[in-house]
């Protein structure tokens, strides 16, 4: 099978002889991939990995599977074959794949080294996105969407309406990250939000918060090209580098009640963490969406206490988030044309390394989401 695969740190390449994925279990479905987006996490696996991928030629603890494997976890496609116990999808359905895997998936794989029927305490509480063994399709658990075909469990498929374009559907994954974060914040219609960082996640947050009915959104971003992108989505932008005291300056933006109702750190440096915390109002909420390295940072708990603020985090998503995002795009709550603005490139799998990964590594600010397709003839110009 043709795929853009992860072989090891520093080695991602196209190959046309990857093993065909098969239905290994009655509840799995085989999907013909339409589109799959490249994520910053994919770049990290190349540069700093293996992070989620199996190490040292070993097996993934959840699935027992080894490298190489096709990468890609932001995918849409069309179901081509279903296992004998599949009831939730049928051949021909258009789907998106919720790529998170947890303890609840272990039963799919005979070779899992986690031979237990007991779910971890997060999974037992239904918080599968916080699973102690969390992994991802396309990041080592099993092969992902930079391939002609992929198999996943029916529980991770969300059927999408056929009129929803499959390229836009590949954005459901990053949108679900920020949809989950907006729910964690308890964000309400009419509230105000400040977003740190206008990368793919910050811009996805903008679309989601607009969909939640935000009355005002301000995006703080250093790179001018990315500020322009945010601006074209109809929100106010702010350049922290222009001000000696960016927090004070942001706090001067009139938002009604001495600060924003919510702030989302979609960047992950001390400056954005501090800003997200300080620009919120009394009982406001600051959500850390960013993934940090191991180095801790300082913060003063009284900055939370004296204004009864909430400081929280959001990780991944659930299949419900996916369903809600699909519905939000279908109903126009998240406009299709706004989603399209996030797609800055479409490439064939064969060109995915050069015109996808390298392009993102070398020209990060001019890109948001580059999608790859294995379906070179029918879909590249769709
Ligand atoms: N919580 C989750 O489940 C989840 C899922 C996916 C990604 N993430 C994380 O979300 C974060 C954002 O992802 P991304 O792909 O958009 O990353 P990105 O690096 O493309 O975007 C971050 C942006 O922050 C901007 N920035 C840097 N310093 C700044 C500052 N001081 N003020 C304002 N802006 C600043 C950068 O210019 C950049 O545009 C990453 O940490 C990523 O790992 C989290
Ligand atoms: Zn678990």
UniProtKB/TrEMBL annotation:
UniProt domain Alcohol dehydrogenase-like N-terminal: residue ranges: 26-162
Domain Alcohol dehydrogenase-like C-terminal, by residue range, is: 200-330
What keywords does the record list, in alphabetical order? Answer: Metal-binding, Oxidoreductase, Zinc
* Gene Ontology molecular functions: (R,R)-butanediol dehydrogenase activity; zinc ion binding
A Pfam entry, by short name = ADH_zinc_N
Among InterPro entries, the record links this protein to:
ADH-like_C, ADH-like_N, ADH_Zn_CS, GroES-like_sf, NAD(P)-bd_dom_sf
Keyword Oxidoreductase included in the entry's annotation: yes
State any GO BP term from the record: butanediol biosynthetic process
Task: Extract the SUPFAM superfamilies matched here.
Answer: GroES-like, NAD(P)-binding Rossmann-fold domains
Q: Which cofactor does it need?
A: Zn(2+)
A GO cellular component annotation here is: cytoplasm
What is stated as this protein's family in its record?
Belongs to the zinc-containing alcohol dehydrogenase family.
Output this protein's name.
Enoyl reductase (ER) domain-containing protein
The source organism is: Torulaspora globosa
Lineage, top ranks: Eukaryota, Fungi, Dikarya, Ascomycota, Saccharomycotina
């Amino acid at each position: 099978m043709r795929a853009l695969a992860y072989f090891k740190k520093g080695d991602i390449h196209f190959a046309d002889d990857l093993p065909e994925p098969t239905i290994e279990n009655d509840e799995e479905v085989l999907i013909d991939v339409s589109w799959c987006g490249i994520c910053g996490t994919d770049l990290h696996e190349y540069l700093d990995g293996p992070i989620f991928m199996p190490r040292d030629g070993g097996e993934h603890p959840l699935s027992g599977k080894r490298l190489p494997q096709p990468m890609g976890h932001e995918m849409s496609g069309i179901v081509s074959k279903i296992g004998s116990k599949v009831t939730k999808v049928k051949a021909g359905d258009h789907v998106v794949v919720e790529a998170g895997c947890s303890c609840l998936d272990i039963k799919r794989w005979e070779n899992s080294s986690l031979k237990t029927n007991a779910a971890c305490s997060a999974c037992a509480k239904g918080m599968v996105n916080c699973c102690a063994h969390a992994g991802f399709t396309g990041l080592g658990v099993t092969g992902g969407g930079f391939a002609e075909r992929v198999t996943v469990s029916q529980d991770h498929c969300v059927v999408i309406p056929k009129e929803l374009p499959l390229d836009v559907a590949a954005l459901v994954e990053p949108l679900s990250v920020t949809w989950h974060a907006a729910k964690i914040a308890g964000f309400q219609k009419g509230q105000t939000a400040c977003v740190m960082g206008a990368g793919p996640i910050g811009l996805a947050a903008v679309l989601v918060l607009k969909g939640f009915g935000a009355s005002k959104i301000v995006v703080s971003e250093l790179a001018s090209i990315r500020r322009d992108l945010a601006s074209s989505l109809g929100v106010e932008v702010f350049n922290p580098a222009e001000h000696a005291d960016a927090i004070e300056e942001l706090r001067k933006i009139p938002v009604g009640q001495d600060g924003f109702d919510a702030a989302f750190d979609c960047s992950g440096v001390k400056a954005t963490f501090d800003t997200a915390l300080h620009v919120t109002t009394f009982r406001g909420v600051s959500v850390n969406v960013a993934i940090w390295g191991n180095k801790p940072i300082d913060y003063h708990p009284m900055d939370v206490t004296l204004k009864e603020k909430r400081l929280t985090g959001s990780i991944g998503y659930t299949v419900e988030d996916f369903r809600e995002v699909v519905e939000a795009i279908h109903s126009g709550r998240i406009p299709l044309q706004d989603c399209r603005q996030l797609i800055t490139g479409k490439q064939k799998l064969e060109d995915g390394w050069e015109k996808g990964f390298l392009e993102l590594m070398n020209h990060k600010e001019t890109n948001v989401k580059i999608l790859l397709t294995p379906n070179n003839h029918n879909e590249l110009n769709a």
